[in-house]
Specification:
The protein has 369 residues and is mainly α. It contains 13 helices and two strands. The chain is 75% helix and 3% strand.
């Protein structure tokens, strides 16, 4: 419930929903809704295959490590978000006018599908957010840890697998009350003698909001949006400080071995890549969580602000689901090399590319000193 990706479900509730006067934000929301269908499809048609590529590359035996395990299951969550969204957006935004509320559009099967999508996408986004927290936490732990042996790495990898499984299971359990909040209501059209089926308007921010709905919304916004974003911010800041300190220490060491330079350079690049991934989470999820929270306390905020911005937040969330492949290709030599080997039969090895970068890193280190 209350995912930006399913804003359409609340945008076209029963015809008795309260109407508001058009404002600049409402006009913008109406315009964005008119282009949302095909723009979302474009993002999905890019994001679905690229997330499949992420999964196939990151799950390779020689790519298995704690960081890649988290990124792989993050790609699974992103993929699960985008696949069911495609038929939804085709039907509700492309095949019919977005603001059409006719019984032909809102049939019972499509209402059931919309209800399924609301609950399913809420779950996958919750999983993604907490995997983002895990990325920040475990990267911070890795940089601070003094245990570098094979046994320590295996223990960390085993712990990561348990954390991932726990996130997937707990996300489903925590959202059970939200699954039970949304309901399908019907509206009979006397002119056509047909019945349309809608998702019930929860009347958020009004005196008609049910206490159980309010509790569920607050719990959802805090546990799945606000808290993960705060944790990501704290650990991202710690990663930035650690990255800066490690860089200074590396430049100050004159007698440094090539193996140590290679390892530290690789760790710094991986950390920077993860920071970009986490920052994208914050840019899309934190504003959304705040808007949900504000909607529960300010009357009419949900209808006048949140709803017009829903499709924009929807698209931003989809872009965040789809963009990781580009980040990995640009910022990770290991991922880029393995991707080229698997899909283009390019035989240059990671070690060859790393050796070239090591030479550059050594020159830069000693020149700076």
């Amino acid at each position: 419930m209350f995912e930006a990706d399913v804003k359409m479900a609340t945008n076209v509730t029963t015809p008795s929903s309260e109407q508001i006067e058009p404002s600049a934000l409402a006009v913008f929301g109406g315009w964005f809704t008119s282009i949302h269908g095909y723009s979302s499809l474009t993002v999905c048609f890019f994001g679905i295959p690229t997330n499949l590529i992420n999964i196939t590359v990151l799950s390779r035996k020689d790519m298995r490590n704690p960081t890649n395990a988290l990124l792989c299951w993050l790609a699974v969550a992103d993929l699960l978000t985008m696949i069911p969204y495609v038929p939804f957006v085709i039907h509700f935004y492309c095949a019919f006018d977005p603001y059409d509320s006719s019984p032909d559009k809102f049939t019972f099967p499509w209402a059931v599908y919309m209800l399924f999508l609301i609950n399913f996408v809420a779950t996958t986004h919750t999983i993604s957010n907490w995997l983002g927290v895990s990325l920040a936490v475990f990267r911070f732990v890795q940089l601070r840890s003094t245990s570098k042996g094979t046994v320590a790495k295996r223990r960390l990898y085993s712990t990561i697998q348990k954390v991932i499984a726990g996130i997937y299971v707990c996300s489903c359990v925590v959202l059970v009350p939200n699954y039970m909040t949304n309901k399908i209501v019907e509206h009979h059209d006397n002119e056509t003698n047909k019945t349309a089926f809608f998702i019930e308007d929860i009347k958020l921010g009004t005196n008609d909001t049910k206490p159980i709905v309010l509790v569920n919304v607050l719990t959802y916004s805090i546990l799945t949006k606000i808290v993960p974003c705060i944790l990501m911010t704290v650990f991202s800041g710690s990663l930035l400080i650690s990255l800066n300190l490690n860089g200074r220490q590396r430049r100050r060491r004159l007698s440094v071995t090539s193996n140590k330079v290679r390892r530290e350079s690789r760790q710094a690049k991986t950390t920077r890549m993860l920071l970009v991934v986490i920052i994208l989470f914050l840019l899309t999820e934190f504003p959304h969580g705040l808007l949900i929270l504000i909607s529960t306390v300010i009357p009419d905020f949900y209808y006048s602000v949140y709803s017009p911005l829903g499709d924009l937040m929807d698209l931003l969330a989809l872009v965040n689901n789809a963009i990781n492949f580009l980040l990995y290709c640009i910022m990770s030599t290991q991922f880029r090399t393995k991707f080229l080997q698997m899909y283009f039969n390019k035989q240059s090895t990671f070690k060859d590319m790393e050796r070239t970068q090591l030479t550059t890193s050594l020159k830069t280190t000693f020149t700076t000193i």
